[in-house]
Amino acid sequence: MKTISDSPPGRQGPLKSMTEMKATKKRFRAALAVIIAVASHAFAGEEKQEPFPDLRLSGSLRLRYEHQSNYNIKRYGIGKSDDFLLTRLRLNFDLMLREGFHAFAQLQDAHFFFSDLSRHDFPKSCPYENRLDLRQAYLEHKKLWGGPFGLKIGRQAINYGDNRIWGPGDWGNAGRYTWDAAKLYYHTDFIHIDAIAAERVLYDPITFDGSHYPYEVFGLYGRLPRNKAASVDLFWVLKRDAHHNVKGESGTDDLNRHTVGAHATGEFGKTEFGGFDYAATGAYQFGNHGKDDVHAYALLGEVGYTFKRRLNPRVYGAYTYASGDSDPTDGDNETFDAVNGARANYYGRMNLFYLKNLVDYQCGCSVEPAENMKVSVDYHLVGLARSKDAWYYAAPHRRDNTGASGRNLGQEIDVIVKWQVPLNTSIKKAIKKFELMAGYAYFVPGSFIERTGPAGDANWGFLQAAAWF
Asked: What is the mean pLDDT of the chain?
């Protein structure tokens, strides 16, 4: 898999001049105008009835202070700490044209302050800064010709299930994933099927986000009828790069990585004392990575029990396995690619690990000490699936091709407090929801990290306030 840190931009890489940027903006605006005009005609059905058109305005503002010690977003073992402030404003414009047909746009303005890092430390895409830009702009018709088909076309966020396969990555200040995409769907009471063709937007911290990562993504996502006992989703995703420049162990060629799998959630064993809940995901990957054959897989499972008692205590255990490469010279790519998934909630809140060559044994508990307040504690024992493969943030971070450094990555403990602050009626007219969060995490490195470079304990803390209006 090519990442933003080690991949050339390809034919759709960052623009090289202001002239090209202005031309791209003009083309985008013209294309959007054509889409609106064509769609308005194609989707025309019944005569327009009141109260349409109806413009609905909303948005959110988020402020977060973070402290990082002995690591940052780029690397671990830096031997110093960094404190910084993140701000993110989003403004939403939702124009309802008729029942089930609307045009949506979202502006985003994201900044960071006081950090030792600057936007110049991220030459291709900055995860912290995305000055006033068009994050989403799409047209959606939910019932084409009054039937079960729907269409969503334009710039959009895509998320399904628990966000491990498709997720927006919204914990990051700029957001992790946004797509220029077309999504055709078929939704009935029995099944939901979405077909997707998309290019991932490359965030430019200063100018308009008019460029893309050098790959395309196609997918099918099906959701079977949902009930408390079991809800099952089925998916297929193809990540393709046809530029003939993807480097594998045995040579350079295209990328064609298929991911097929299922995600299930449900509840069972309910009694007067409480009940169990579970979630599970399994995925298998095949195709080619350059000249290499792809054979990789991931298994993720969680079981929890919630007591019907004061504070609503819940305990859980979870297991994550994402395959790694057993031999870096045999021409077989066995490292699982994390597809388009979020990671902040799953593999440790410090974001030191990714769904690649990973084993994560996890347990935790949570309580609700007050109305709309939740306190959670999570413990992770983390290791490599294969000792000869790399430790991944997203890109390879450290590697021992001999395997002599072992597989133990370390231990992390996370504590998170979330409180949705009650609002009186007068305030609710202006602010729909106001939420406070705070958290702390501590990481102790294992033998692999200690043997492959700078080590030492690391910690992270944050305070966050967010309002939706």
From this structure: 90
CATH of the domain at 257: 2.40.160.100
The half-sphere exposure of 53 on its side-chain side, counting CA atoms within 13 A, is: 10
Q: How far apart are CA 416 and CA 68, in angstroms?
A: 16
Q: Is residue 2 part of a domain?
A: no
Structural domain for 85, as ranges = 10-468
Q: Please, which residues bridge with residue 332 across strands?
A: 293
Q: Which amino acid is at 288?
A: N
4 belongs to a structural domain: no
Please compute Rg for the chain using Cα positions. Answer: 23
**Which residue's entry shows tokens 């803390």?**
461
Cβ neighbours of residue 377 closer than 8 Å, sequence gap 6 or more: 364, 365, 366, 413, 414, 415
Q: Which tokens in the block code for residue 262?
A: 């299922």
pTM for the whole structure: 0.87
In degrees and rounded to multiples of 5, residue 361 shows phi and psi of -95, 125
Angle value at C-alpha 201, between 92 and 122, nearest 5 degrees: 105
d(CA 218, CA 196): 5
**Residue 368 phi, psi dihedral angles, 5° rounding:** -120, 85
Identity of the amino acid at 33: A
Mean pLDDT of 436-458: 97
Give the whole-angstrom CA distance, residue 104 versus residue 132.
Answer: 17
Q: What are 29's strand-pairing partners?
A: none
**Can you give the pLDDT at residue 29?**
54
Query: Is the residue at 406 inside a domain?
Result: yes
Instruction: Tokens for 109, please give them.
Output: 């303005």
C-beta separation of 212 from 7 below 8 A: no
Q: What residues contact 151, with CB distance under 8 A and at least 6 apart? A: 139, 140, 141, 144, 182, 183, 184, 185
- The domain total for the chain is 1
CA 391 to chain centre: 20
Cis peptide before 51 (omega within 30 of 0): yes
How do residues 18-76 score in pLDDT, each as one tens digit? 454 455 455 555 545 444 444 444 444 444 455 889 999 999 999 999 999 999 999 99
Q: What are the contacts of 155-159 at 24+ separation with CB within 8 A?
A: 155/179, 155/180, 155/181, 155/201, 156/181, 156/183, 158/183, 158/196, 158/198, 158/340, 159/342
Distance CA 226, CA 211 (A): 38
Query: 325 with 364: CB under 8 angstroms?
Result: no
Give the DSSP letter of residue 336.
Answer: P
The answer to the question of residue 461 being in a domain is yes
Phi, psi of 38 (to 5 degrees): -65, -45
Can you tell me the distance from the alpha carbon of 40 to that of 324, in angstroms, rounded to the nearest whole number? 49
